[in-house]
Hints:
It is a single chain. By secondary structure, the chain is of the alpha/beta class. The protein has one domain (2-195): HUPs (Rossmann fold). It is 42% helix and 16% strand. The chain contains nine helices and six strands. The protein has helices at 15-27, 52-63, 74-77, 84-94, 106-109, 118-124, 137-151, 167-175, 188-195; strands at 2-8, 32-37, 69-71, 99-105, 126-130, 156-158. β5, α7 and β6 form a beta-alpha-beta unit.
Amino acid sequence: MRKAIFGGTFDPIHVGHLHIAYEALYNLKLDKVIFMPSGNPPHKVNRVVTAAEIRYEMVEAAISKEPLFEIDDYEINNSNLSYTYKTMEYFNNLESQTDWYFLTGVDSLMDLKKWRNVDILLENCNLAVFSRPGYTHEDIVQMKNYIEKTYKKEIMYLEIPVLDISSTVIKEKIKLSRQIDYLLPCGVQEVIERYHIYK
Ligand code: ATP
Ligand code: MG
């Protein structure tokens, strides 16, 4: 089996996330993409993050129509800070016959020097990187080369059309009472309204 974990704060999940999950599924010929909402993201400790249970519910609603998308609460149930290397080590030990991938946008990859135990992470999975607005092809290739040289492991760079959408922009639009229907997957807005978040 070939499976990917797609980690994120998902505050909220948006169509940009589903777009890359689908492209990963298709291009990497995966059997599953497992969405992993972070419990306590180390890089967002100084920011207000919506309760994990609500972020989980939004992801659940967003992926409900796609049988090859799943959700897992491993990081949410872990009260410690969520570190990707620990998550991948856990899943790789659990299913060592599976080929594991970790999906990430290039903005997160550019912070790789701040990631904990990248060597352990790369022993336990393949990294698949997606472009995001704000980064040139050269930026990405340079980072890819640096990682491959440093850690002696190939990483995958998937060049797919980018969608210039972020959770931050969606929250700003909600504050301004702007329309966000077309940026959110089905069912997510209903959860946002039910919990009165982002107002
Ligand atoms: P925020 O604005 O709060 O940082 P975000 O839109 O970046 O939100 P995250 O939950 O931080 O969403 O992202 C989870 C993962 O998805 C990261 O690896 C990020 O790079 C990637 N990602 C998010 N949006 C996009 C997008 N539009 N295109 C490509 N990758 C994306
Ligand atoms: Mg982000």
